[in-house]
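Annotated sample (chain length 77).
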Amino acid sequence: MKKYSIVRIGSEYIVQAGETSILRVSSRQEADKLVTDAAGLLQDAAGLLQQEQAPAADQDASIDRDASVMLEPAKVP
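Output written by the structure step:
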C-alpha cells in the first residue's frame, strides 16, 4: 500500500501518494477524508484480489459432490 501524506502549501493542502502529488484541496478535513477513503478502497481491493486468487474448495471437482466426474471402471482381462 502506498504511503499517503498531506502537505500544506499556502492556503491549500496537497495530498501525496509517496513522492507524487495527486490532489489539491482547500481544507485539511477534506484532505484527511480523501486519504482515509483511498486507504480503505485499496484495502478492500486487496482483499477482493486475494479472494479471487485463492481456489475455492467448493469449486474443486469431486466424485462425492459432482456426478459428472466419473472414473472409468478397471478393465478385467
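Annotation: Residues 4-50 form one domain.
Annotation: Helices lie at 28-53.
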